[in-house]
Amino acid sequence: MTPRARGSRTALAALAAALLLGACAGPGEAAPAPSAPAPSASAPLPAAAATPPGTLLTADFGAGTVTFVDPVRGAVASVPVGRAPYGLAVGADGRAGVATAEGVAVVDTRTRERLARIPHRTDTGPAADGEYRGGGMGIALSPDGAHAYVGVNVPGTTGVLEVIDTAAREVTAVVPVGRRPFDVDVSADGAEVYVTGHDSFDVTVVPAGSLRPRRIEVAPYGTGGGLGSWLKPHYAAVRPADGKLLLPFEGERLAVVDPRTGRTTVEPMTADTHQHGATMTADGRLLVVGTGAVEPGDGEGPSLTVRSPDGTERVFPLDGPHEDVAVSRDGRTAYVTGGFTRDGYWNGITVVDLDSGATRRLAAGDRPLGVAVL
Q1: 62: pLDDT strictly greater than 80
Q2: Pick from 139, 146, 135, 60: which is nearest to 348 by CA?
Q3: Checking DSSP bridges between strand 170-176 and strand 160-165, what pairing results, if any?
Q4: What angle do CA 218, 278, 352 make, to 5 degrees?
Q5: What does pTM read for this prediction?
Q6: In angstroms, rounded to a whole number, what is the distance separating the alpha carbons of residues 329 and 92?
Q7: Bridge-partner residues for 165, per DSSP?
Q8: Does the N-terminal or the C-terminal CB of the chain have fewer CB atoms within 10 Å?
Q9: Over 70: is that where the pLDDT of 295 sits?
Q10: Residues 16-44, mean pLDDT to the nearest whole number
């Protein structure tokens, strides 16, 4: 997990570590932990009862639903979207695109109803569950909402980026990208799409006009270990100040990628934990989810890192592994999903006060991964 030289480990400790977090290293699915029942699907709401602003939306990897979550009371309703939903993105029109194993579901978040499911053009095999299942992973919308971009995992080979015309509700282009595209981001002007390839140590830059992909290797620890390595990119965030990509690694190194030149610089981080989800606040703070030490005793536990533009960091401990994070409009509250892609997940969200570090838990669907604030 980390660059430090390791002492010898017992076989028991190594086995425990593999069972806890083995999915990030390479194929091989651990048995899922028991999950609580998800809230039942709701009927469309009358206009007078439209979903209020500030409601959270989660992609329920364990239930094939999205769940609407009151930030005070917890889960209030769920809507079926398709098998094993992973990421989601919400447009200014209130419609969400949800990446599932079967395609991209379109959900009207104001009335809480699924409007459509756009099937993948790419053959990803039978719809399945688990981190290695084929189908949609990261997803993002163009600033004007005209296109959705979904990273599609194709088991055993490189992935693709499928471009969706949101008005026509159809896939209009398919672009080759890296392996297991955990995350998709779009530049502020919509001119470029960035796809993070977890198993290929890279970011693929895709111009929205030409759709001609360009690979940038992002491997601050090198690529030794290949598919078995822990030291891979997971999620990225686009820095508002200059459009550079920020990719955290292991709570130790932050890769800062200039998508124009392809150059990467590395800055130190302090959390010392395996890292997944990342997002930016409007004032330029980077929030990063830490899932915990890969090997017992070698690294710190789960956390949320809040990194200021000047590089100073505050690290807030979390109870158990988490996966992704969204932030309130005022930038004072973070919502961290407890779904996680491996064992140890729980069915809810940790709410973090970013001023004090105080936390509380909300019930939220079944193994929630992606999250957005409506």
Answers
A1: yes
A2: 60
A3: antiparallel
A4: 155
A5: 0.90
A6: 14
A7: 147, 170
A8: C
A9: yes
A10: 42
- Select the more confidently predicted residue: 249 or 344: 249
Report CA 266 to chain centroid distance, whole Å. Answer: 22
Rounded CA gap, 296 and 108, in Å? Answer: 43
- The Cα–Cα gap between 53 and 68 comes to 11
Half-sphere exposure of 129 (CA within 13 A, CB side): 10
| Position 14 pLDDT exceeds 90 | no
User: What's the token pair of residue 323?
Assistant: 């996966």
The three-state (H, E, C) secondary structure of the chain, written as one string: CCCCCCCCCCHHHHHHHHHHHHHHCCCCCCCCCCCCCCCCECCCCCHHHCCCCCCEEEEECCCCEEEEEECCCEEEEEEECCCCCCCEEECCCCEEEEECCCEEEEEECCCCEEEEEEECCCCCCCCCCCCCCCEEEEEEECCCCCEEEEEEECCCCCCEEEEEECCCCEEEEEEECCCCEEEEEECCCCCEEEEEEHHHCEEEEEECCCCCCEEEECCCCCCCCHHHCCCCCCCCEECCCCCCEEEEECCCEEEEECCCCCCEEEEECCCCCEEEEEEECCCCCEEEEEEECCECCECCCCEEEEECCCCCEEEEECCCCCCCEEECCCCCEEEEECCCCCCCCCCEEEEEECCCCCEEEEECCCCEEEEEEC
Kindly tell me the burial class for residue 293, based on how many C-beta atoms sit within 10 Å of its own C-beta (0-12, 13-18, 19 or more).
Answer: buried
- pLDDT for res 44: 52
